[in-house]
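DATA SHEET
Item: assembly model
Revision: 1
Owner: S.N.
Input lines:
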Amino acid sequence: RHLSLLVAEEEEYINSSSWRDQKRHFFVLTEAGKPVYSRHGSEDKLSSVMGVMLALVSCVHDRNDKIRSITAGDHKFVFLIKIPLILVAVCSTPESITQITVYLKYIYNKIVSIVTLKQLDRIYAKQKNFDLRRLLTGTDKFLDHLCTSMDTGPEYLLGAFQCLPLAGNIRDLVSQALQLSKTNDLAFALLLTSGKTVSYCRLKEHNLHSSDLQILINLITASSSFHAGESWLPICLPHFNPQGFLHAHISYLDDDFQTCLLLLSADVNSFFTLSEAKKRVMVKLNKHDCLPILKLASEKGMYNVGKIGLPDLRHFIYKSKHQSQFTAPEFSSPYHDVHQQERLFGLYQHLHGKIHNPAIPLKLLFEVSDEETMLAWVASGFELYVAFSPLVTKGQAISSVDRLLRWIKQREDELFMIRPLVF
Amino acid sequence: LASLVVYNTSYGTKEGEEEKKLLFYHPKTETRDKKVNNVGLFEALVQFTRSFAPNSECETLRTKFHQHVFLHAEENFWLVMKVANRTSKAQHNEFIAYEDEMVDTVYHEVLKNLYETFRFLHGTFTAIVGNHGVEFLREELDHCFGQLMKTNLSKCDIMSVYNGVSYLNLDKASYIGFQSFIFTLQDKFKDVESSLLMFNDAVILSGLDETDTKVIVKYLKSKLKLCLAYPNRLHISISGISTYMLTYGHMVTSLFTSKHTKQTRRAFINFDAPNSMQQVEVILYQYQSITACLFLNKPSIPLVDLAKQLDAFMGPQLKTLTASIVDQQKNNYDITEPNLKHVYHNRCSLSVDSTCHVTSHSGEVSCVIPTDVMQVVCDINRTFSRSKCEEHEVINKVHNDHWVASKRTNGRELHVVVNHKNANLSAVTEEIKKVSCHFNGINFAE
């Protein structure tokens, strides 16, 4: 009797439009059908929905095939099968199926970063119906934060990160300071201000992949638990090594928790060595009075598009392919409210999806609609996405793009990290 | 085409009776269990998508190797078509199989057309079941879909989406001539409810609504293409079509027949207006290059006698009228511009016009631009049909040499394909103008 009451409650919940009508659902379950995570609503109440998902996956699997996606009107249902996990997205947003698959991969990587692939495989080889939530206790907020930032974050769409705009010589000083943290097993040293990358230093033979960097940024921005003193935490960076943990020494360098230093080492016993290394970085930064400058730069924020002096230009995103970095101005008129910003981001997603269509990639896309004229252009070194006012002529758009590219080139040093150092 | 299934969700709801849901299953060789299982999967999918999107219907299921297209044809009646993914690289690259996202609409329209053609020839599923029972519907589907399924899917593109008809270019006087001919005809022969006139494969005028016109023209073209290609040999029975010679022209007798009822020359029209589906009888009359499709409501005399009377009236008139058809030149811009091609569609009149396709002597239509460029055209059409604004313009650079410029305005769509080495946006804009100036009111942005 108690059970039937629960089932009824669950049904009512799923049928409530407030849950159903969410624009982006993400679900994670195990191949035994155990719920792991749901973005909206508690996964406990969703066991029947997840049961259906598992049934669909295994039904198609029985036919020696693999389910990828379902479409119904504006809704897209996308499946990513990474045994022992199954990830499902249900979106009624303008992304393409390929883009949604990329989002699911971010979620998968986030989970791997907490438990490592090695542990995941070992557990499920032994015990098929293990409840993974036991290992993920307390990490829901990181997954929630990741899902929310993917809603409007170009970094996930582009696979690139955005630097804090900063004078080139200051960034160089920070890089040199980070280099001083070198110890035997140090893999990466990273400095963030207000969640934006200032600089990082890495081992010569290992690049810091932008998706790994995103995991670190997500970790810092999702939680205030690192505010107190120095923290020590195991973390797996799936692109660096999905099988094992790195150990992160995390500390804030200023009193208002703006600037954060992350030191990642392969040695589990190196906390005190890294604590010493942090002091060396601090000395160098203080010597040149860098922290107040960083604070000022973060308060100043991004630049306004009006600064460029192109009347028809409303907003843009420029990605430098070599550096996996992008730059974009802050939102200005007419994109001042969240609704408009989401709409604009939807247009960027649309352009990005078309231009990177895996079957037929395009070189250039120019689209005129009622509210704006959009341009996307992929060249050898960069990708550019621009929103113009709807009345711009093609001639004006072309000359604006030329001037915009020149403007970016002139400020390359300030907008991008172009001289990263290695240990 | 890997398989085609028609089922009704309300049949065989009891455990163990699931087989009753099946109305049609291709390939027939599939085991009973597999058939039942597949329908179970389809029903689960439909339920699953409804739980998130209660107002939309499940449209496609994409897997690593296949794509399923769903059509909710009538209440409880579903058609599901399964197609193998076009690419064989699917095993090596996870993403490449998504290619077919671009041709979604194409497959969907092919399936819809299949259903509409069936409906035109036999009536709705619901009506058939109501009048003759489920078993009868199964037999009709077997008979009819077997014939219709021969569509070559790899050749389907934007033209299957538009499913439009090409109209004959006529000067005003000749057009009015034809119009008054039809008026007189329908006045003189009260049994003739409405009619459709074609010259070769181009429509002169149609008294039917859009969907009916679309379906009939496509059906006639597929059945009569051989006759049309050899207009002088019309009296010979070709590919199962038999004709009945009259004094001037002849009557095509073997179309629109049902194997079971032995009722000849009937069809169902008027689906768009609610509750006004009509069963009509059809006389298909040909005189030289003219085909007249006459729809009769409960004729008072036998069709053969009526046909004789019609022939005596129509023959001499058509003779004069045909002579006035002189110009068939469709492409009114300078065809010495080989780097420019276009596809045009008018949603209201159904008119289509394409220089991206050529028709061979045997009636085969083939596409002359690269497949990927054509896929981009299909994809833009999909963007347009999902876009909320009536005015929409898109210009794509596909690879180094090809550009696709598309404009939608007031229900009309024009896609211009420009093949131009090392062009830039301004140069392409100039090229597009050479085409768009021939389409009144379609102006690309400056």
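QC remark: The longest helix of chain B spans residues 303-324.
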